[in-house]
Amino acid sequence: MPLIPGVIKMIKTDEVRIKIAIQKSGRLTEHSIELLTRCGLTYSRGRDQLICYGENMPVDILLVRDDDIPGLVQENICDLGIVGGNIIEELRLELIKKGTKRLFNVLERLNYGHCRLSFGIPENVEYIGAKTLKGKKIATTYPLIVEDYLKKQNVNATVVEFSGAVEIAPSLGKADLICDLVSSGATMKAHGLFEADTILESTATLIQSPEALSKTKKDWIKLLLQRIRGVLQVKESKYIMLHAPREALQEIRRLLPGSEAPTIIPLEGFKDKVAVHAVCRENVFWETLEELKEAGASSMLVLPVEKMLA
Ligand code: PRP
Ligand code: ZN
After folding, report:
1. pLDDT band at 284 (very low <50, low <70, confident <90, very high)
2. Cα–Cα nearest to 107, from 80, 86, 84
3. Ligand 1 lining (C-beta closer than 6 Å)
4. Which ligand is nearest to the Cα of residue 67, counting in written order?
5. Distance, CA 242 to ligand 1 centroid (Å)?
6. Which ligand has the shortest distance to the CA of 86?
7. Cα distances (angstroms) measured from residue 116 to each of 8, 40, 65, 123, 162
8. Is the dihedral of CA 186, 192, 197, 198 positive or negative?
9. pTM, rounded to two decimals
10. Distance (Å) from CA 164 to ligand 1 centroid
11. Among 73, 111, 121, 215, which residue has the least CB neighbours within 10 Å?
């Protein structure tokens, strides 16, 4: 664990403040900070750069190594954590294996940090589904997820755990193939591997400690979660305004992506034309606007939504 005992003690003794662990530096860091900021949290950074103290909410951010996050939450050193689904799943399998009864709770899958756990096969090897893995040596940072997959596929193979740089294992002769995270696919390609079957899709995920929390903490987490959901929804949402012939209303409503009851407003001086204002829960693309125009809409305006509370 990277946290010095003094820090742990200080965090633990403060019963009222919510501690949320996020990745110190990596693919989730910037997005996680942005998410919390968009939830209205302002903070100041501690001198050690490990903790950000919330100024307007009793919420402090701990910057830690991503592998440590589920453990910190499971052990109730932090109340919440944001970490990749891949790391969560590996720890979940480990805890189950150990017979742990109370596991951390998954509160929300977030819409960033998308990646997948896939097999990477040397380019000169033919891949014909899971049976290709039979008798092979597979290098991975996620041994339990891979073993679980092999078991479900009824395939016998040897899994060797690597803590990093998995992609070089085949060229070093340490494994026949790998199972690793893929985002753009550039890393596997650069190491002469091609991506075969995906065994897990991962996104950044918000988890909560399995311990019972105080009423104050519960209330703050409820509020934070509500805001997080609002932020996630707003990202895709658009406010659309247009003019339309009354007779085309039915078709226009059908074309508006993910909108609930739009507001219909009469237009001064026009008997058969109205203004339509609607919140679309999905992005509005050019194609949609073109279809709306085809259906008779004009003067279309698409605006971003800043905040939303259902
Ligand atoms: C993952 C994975 C590869 C890389 C793949 O590592 O282990 O190294 O990302 O990304 P690409 O498909 O876009 O090339 P990560 O950045 O999560 O760091 P880690 O290996 O240190 O955990
Ligand atoms: Zn890596």
Report:
1. confident
2. 80
3. 27, 164, 180-187
4. 1
5. 45
6. 1
7. 32, 31, 20, 20, 18
8. negative
9. 0.83
10. 9
11. 215
